[in-house]
Amino acid sequence: MKKCLQLCCLALALIGLGSAGSLAAEATVKFGHVGPTFHGQTKGVDAFAAYVKEKTEGRIDIATFPGGQLGGERSLAEQVQSGTLQMATISTAVLQNFVPQAAIMDMPFMFPDRKTLYKVLDDKDVQNKIFSYFPKKGFMAIGWTENEIRDLSNNKRPVHTPDDVKGLKIRVMNSPVYIDTFKQLGASPVGIPFPEIYNALQTGVIDAQENPILTTVLMNFTEVNKYITKTQHCVTECIIIVARDYWESLSADDQMIFREAAKVATEVNRNVNVELHHKLPKSGISIEQFAEKNAVEIVELTSEERAQFREAMTPVWNKYRTKIGDELFDYVLSKIDEYK
């Protein structure tokens, strides 16, 4: 009898340990990204975690790690792919190294404006089409976050047409699409690390850089670059990815909650970014007011000027069609035509 009681106690202890382990596993879900703490992407990811925690009544508690705390984007993608990290949101410029079709989002001058972009991204059929390429690479793609749409700043001249870009030494994101884009425009693209941009502009190593206008202002690049053109040439769109094994461990109800949370993250992300444009951190003034105060010239492209840039990108588009595939490429173009 005594031995039987001991075995029962041991069994109960093991069951308790198993339950604790299960709870701990849920409590240690990690969601990594590289957005700064004030940015819309961070607020969106935090909103994702809050939504999941609320809807699961605390059963799934997601810890968020902004600012590259868990590594750079490529490292984050590799961690999710291997299953050592449950979640991340990664730019398509990096994800295309794992899922080539993700490059469709990085095609230069593809989207005519932000309104059209969002309509295309929010189209359920578009999401299903793009996200369908991810599971076989170890990812489940469930939604969008964004850095922003990218613009061009330089210290030489206002840029209105492709000819104005010729000869500029420009720092670009270290991605083949971005390098090919500016080579096609006759510039000399340079792939230097982001933290070195300011010094490179100040010392004349480069004349220009391409980043969202919000980033350009917040990083003080306008101290050494007085001309900004809202080229909006590429979208720094990010995809929320979940490790496939972790995703498959979730119930159908929890998977639905995650998908709903992704929509919340997208909306919060976009709204905060808009607010930041109108009310910059610390100063509380708009980007336009900042430009006027600091003698920065902002150029808005006309529809005719934008058409010139789009036409100039034909060779770049043709090059990446092979990688992306005609079906997906033409499908996205048709959706852009539908919504613009």
SS summary, helix count: 15
The first-to-last residue Cα distance is 79 Å
Strand content: 15-25%
Average pLDDT over all residues: 91
Q: Strand sequence of the main sheet, in spatial order?
A: 7-6-8-5-9-11
Task: Estimate percent helicity.
Answer: 40-55%
For the sheet with most strands, the description reads: 6 strands, mixed
The geometry reads as globular
Structural classification: alpha/beta
Rg, please? 23 Å
What's the count of strands? 11
Which parts are unreliable, with pLDDT below 50 for 5 consecutive residues or more? 1-25
Order of helices and strands: HEHEHEHHHEEEHEHEHEEHHHEHHH
Report on this structure.
The protein is α/β, with parallel strands linked by helices. The chain has helices at residues 2-27, 40-55, 73-82, 92-95, 114-122, 124-131, 176-184, 197-203, 213-218, 244-249, 252-278, 287-293, 303-312, 314-324, 326-339; strands at residues 29-32, 62-65, 87-91, 139-149, 151-154, 169-171, 188-190, 208-211, 227-229, 235-243, 297-299. The strands form 2 sheets. It has a 6-stranded mixed sheet with strand order 7-6-8-5-9-11, with helices on both faces. Helix 2 runs antiparallel to helix 11 (252-278). The longest helix has 27 residues, at 252-278. It is globular, with a radius of gyration of 23 Å.
